[in-house]
Task: structure prediction
Amino acid sequence: MAKMLTVELTQQTPMIHFQYAEPGATIRGSELKPKLDRFLIQILGDKIRIDHPQWFASQDQDSLAYKVRIRAQGKPTISANINKSYFGNLGDSSDCQSVEYADYGVDVTFYSALDDLIVYIRRWIKPFFWLHNFGTRQSKGFGSFSVWAIDGERHPEGLPPDPDSFLRMYYKSKMHMPAFEIVCANETPKWMADDVLEQIRVTYGFMKSGFNFPNGDYYKGFALQYLTPTFANDKAFVKSAVLGRGPLGKPSRFIRAMLGVSDQASWYSDRETIHYAHAPRAGEHEIKRVPSPILFSVTENGRIFVLPHPIPNPLRSTDFSIWKDRGQPHSIKTPSREEFDFSKFLTDFATKFNDKNGPWCQKRGGGSSLMTNAQDKSLQIAQYLTMRAL
Result:
């Protein structure tokens, strides 16, 4: 007889769903089950196949022997008003993606003939949702869910009590890198404190590419500043090599690639469209897209965790071509592991981000801070935010 486990979820952030207009659209089982399988296997490690061979649907696959049914309760809220960190709604409004929000929760039911497998899923299902989002743009906080109840129990015994202790243990023993929490100051205006996706957008913007403003103000993202004593960043490389502004005097590195490579491979610089693509060497596979190695997860009570993942080895010390329309390609290399320590980058960024009076957060040429005086008033939220190491 099949054993059953019912998990009630609360949706923490809107989910960008490609089938948002379908009745009951929510987390897809085809997305949840492979993620959960990988997580459950990772927790036990190699011994899982030795100690529990019966848990696998077949011995040559990493699929565990359970089925899952997911059902949204009530009628979801659908809206095309999506945070600015999602760019898919720019352009033709007839093809807009919408946000789907299950106001009445989501029920996830697991079925298996194996009682011990159901017990194992029950033990780890809550941490699973701390570590994973769903749908489009999930790395930027969209599609976060948390466990509300398990088999009708609001606080069942035998589970990790809170995200802090679990994430601290998990990142130390499994990931070997630091994790962080974005913390709002007590005096944060309520509308800012409640807008978790905007907190994520602004924090990540300061971390990676920075911000440009119509009045000419410009904030250079931390990634573009990070290796400057030794290397020129990719933005400086574009101005020098691609746009012909003169020599840099030092080697260049495609630093922003360390935080993910988009499949929409173009930028705009000085009214020119700039394109980039991987230029694989002999024996290398072409890199078309690499997701961001940072996941922003929103848990109970709107807490935001910054959860890094290792940068894929093929993205290290490889060549990219960058060119402008009707221009010749120019080659730039990504940093090696020795040149770019991801854990140190995150720790250094947190230190800088928490120093609201430092020169790093001032506009180009010095002067008053962009956090308080930018034309884009939404950036002012940054003055209330800090990144706390777990």
User: Anything to note?
Assistant: Confidence is low (pLDDT under 50) at residues 86-94.
